[in-house]
Automatic annotation (TrEMBL), chain A:
One of its GO terms (cellular component) is plasma membrane. Keywords: Cell membrane, Membrane, Transmembrane, Transmembrane helix, Transport. GO terms for biological process: transmembrane transport. It comes from Mesorhizobium muleiense. This is NitT/TauT family transport system permease protein. Residues 79-267 form the ABC transmembrane type-1 domain. It is found in: Cell membrane. Belongs to the binding-protein-dependent transport system permease family. InterPro entries: MetI-like, MetI-like_sf. It is a multi-pass membrane protein. The chain crosses the membrane at residues 27-44, 90-109, 115-137, 144-164, 245-271. It holds the Pfam family BPD_transp_1. The keyword Repeat does not apply.
Automatic annotation (TrEMBL), chain B:
SMART domains: AAA. SUPFAM superfamilies: P-loop containing nucleoside triphosphate hydrolases (SSF52540). It holds the Pfam family ABC_tran. The keyword Ion transport does not apply. Keywords: ATP-binding, Nucleotide-binding, Transport. This is NitT/TauT family transport system ATP-binding protein. The keyword Amino-acid biosynthesis does not apply. InterPro entries: AAA+_ATPase (IPR003593), ABC_transporter-like_ATP-bd (IPR003439), ABC_transporter-like_CS (IPR017871), ABC_transporter_ATP-bind (IPR050166), P-loop_NTPase (IPR027417). GO terms for molecular function: ATP binding; ATP hydrolysis activity. Coiled coil: none annotated. Residues 20-247 form the ABC transporter domain. It comes from Mesorhizobium muleiense. Belongs to the ABC transporter superfamily.
């Protein structure tokens, strides 16, 4: 509960070593990946120079960075298109996933009947389904959304279903004893209990919806109808514009990282007071 | 802190009017296990009744039947002519604190009232009073993981009592606590019981706890779960540390312990030597 002031007490060698170890680990956690990253970029640059690799095959990191700034207008407007699909599909995945999960927990029969279909939808590669979607759906945005949604909704559905069903038996009895209605049990017991599970699913779905959006654009972009980041990559590939290809790739990666970080932060803020996963380890 | 109640104790055995009777109650589970067989038991208003017995004697099952969480296979429950209790007549304290981990102490105690549609503002005075009764004033905003085991159990008791039930059913509530905490909670529970005059049915496997708390101890035997013997604990309330260390208490414990051993042997006997 109370913070222990390390400077106020004299530590024995063992404890002092432990404190030093912890401080080192804290620094190392940030410094090591950063150092490796810098080293890798430097090596990349050197390889280009040592082997005289032309920039349409492997551009030097500096060139990529230049392109990132030079083509910023083009790339960022494309990024916005991809982001729009990503977030809309994530939103729909949340609504669909949670909605279906709630429906499933209302009746075992519904769950038994429909869960297999959700699995079928999940395990079939989206690239293989897309040609069908392409035939049946006209609107470009709808096509992409549907694709990204199919990829993203399953983790939310399966996690939330698990969460809604893993409520402590005694707590359920307690609600029953107090004459709680089905709705009250959902509102005050099952939904809050499912929150950690849902947030876990959301973190996975966030990344998947970006992947879904990009993959869908790739398949659709082959028909030259899209303007997202994926079509920039395809286009750059055709024109042997490797620097822009790399720049677009970096943008996608950073977007993915950012989505993950934001969702992790949301998860932490919601769970920090009560759930084990969000608590700092205490000795 | 602890106010001594001046007036005479609520009841020892069989003084108050009948609240509930179990008449020939039996329970057989779908897997064929007979949890309870032909249990006759009368619970009177103001009783502090303990169900004491080895594990598997059906004491928890009996409590669940009384709570209405399960229905008897045979026999009937008689709540003064009605077969089921009014829901608001029953408070239940589980073996674990069974709190909502995401809700703070206030919200946890408010919950039973909230489920009945009582608003936060309306419930606040009752909830705060209940928290004061279990000595948790000032902890309204704490979440369960910030509390010790004993404090969590206090929250659980406050939650069970917030609807002012006539009977409090407790299923080995203090079994997981350390002895010092358990003694303190026993004292505070008795104090609460004497002030509010409700009825308690208390399941335990501790001879010492049952004797210290109860006006009546019902010793149960296992396989099949049944009532072995009823004992009146003839010692006046309030009971406190002085009682806990008195020869009278020790004698009552010895007496109860002997009966419990008899109950355990009545199970083991035919089981091991029968054939």
């Amino acid at each position: 509960m109370t913070a222990i002031d390390h400077t106020a007490v004299t530590l024995d060698p063992e404890e002092a070593r432990r404190v030093r170890q912890e401080r080192l680990e804290r620094i190392g956690r940030w410094l090591l990946p950063l150092a490796i990253m810098v080293l890798a970029i430097w090596l990349w640059d050197r390889i280009c120079v040592w082997n005289d690799i032309p920039k349409y095959i492997l551009p030097r990191p500096g060139v990529v960075l230049q392109t990132l700034f030079g083509d910023a207008g083009l790339l960022f407007s494309s990024l916005l298109v991809t982001l729009r699909i990503t977030f809309l599909s994530l939103l729909l995945a949340v609504i669909g996933g949670v909605g279906l999960a709630v429906l499933f927990t209302q009746s075992k029969w519904v769950e038994m009947s429909f869960f297999p279909f959700a699995i079928v939808l999940q395990v079939t590669p989206i690239v293989a389904i897309f040609p069908l979607i392409n035939i049946y759906v006209d609107n470009q945005t709808t096509k992409l959304l549907l694709c990204a949604w199919i990829v993203a909704f399953f983790p939310i559905l399966s996690n939330t279903t698990l969460g809604l069903n893993s409520v402590d038996r005694n707590l359920r009895d307690m609600f029953k004893l107090n004459g709680a209605t089905r709705w009250q049990q959902l509102r005050y017991l099952r939904l809050p209990a499912a929150m950690p599970y849902f947030l876990g699913g959301l973190k996975i779905a966030g990344g998947l919806s970006l992947i879904g959006a990009v993959v869908a654009e790739f398949v659709a972009g082959a028909q030259g109808q899209s303007s997202g980041l994926a079509s920039r990559i395809i286009e750059a590939g055709y024109r042997l514009n490797a620097p822009r290809l790399f720049a677009a790739l970096i943008l996608i990666s950073f977007t993915g990282i950012l989505i993950f970080l934001v969702l992790s932060l949301i998860s932490h803020l919601i769970l920090r007071r009560w759930h084990e996963s969000a608590l700092k380890q205490e000795r | 802190m602890q106010e001594k109640v001046a007036q005479a104790p609520a009841s020892t055995s069989g003084k108050g009017p009948m609240l509930l009777a179990l008449r020939g109650v039996g329970k057989v589970f779908s897997n064929g296990v007979t949890a309870l067989s032909d249990v006759d038991l009368t619970i009177r208003e103001g009783d502090f009744l303990s169900l004491l017995g080895p594990s598997g004697c059906g004491k928890s099952t009996a409590l669940r039947l009384i709570a209405g969480l399960a229905t008897p296979t045979s026999g009937l429950l008689d709540w003064r002519g009605s077969s089921a209790a009014d829901r608001s007549d029953i408070g239940f304290v589980f073996q674990e604190p069974t709190l909502l981990p995401w809700a703070d102490v206030f919200d946890n105690v408010w919950l039973p009232l909230r489920l009945k549609g009582v608003s936060r503002a309306k419930a606040a005075p009752v909830v705060m009073e209940m928290l004061a009764r279990v000595h948790l004033t000032g902890f309204e905003k704490a979440v369960p993981r910030e509390l010790s085991g004993g404090m969590k159990m206090r929250v659980s008791i406050a939650r069970a009592m917030v609807t002012k039930p006539r009977v409090l059913l407790m299923d080995e509530p203090f079994a997981a606590l350390d002895e010092i905490t358990r003694f303190k909670l026993n004292d505070d529970l008795l104090e609460l019981w004497q002030d509010e005059r409700f009825t308690v049915v208390f399941v335990t496997h501790s001879v010492f706890e049952s004797v210290f708390l109860s006006s009546r101890v019902v010793v149960m035997a296992a396989r099949p779960g049944r009532v072995f013997k009823e004992l009146a604990i003839d010692a006046s309330y309030p009971r406190n540390e002085v009682f806990r260390t008195s020869p009278a208490y020790a004698a009552l414990c010895r007496q109860t312990s002997d009966v419990l051993i008899g109950a355990i042997n009545s199970t083991a006997g035919p089981h091991h030597d029968g054939h």
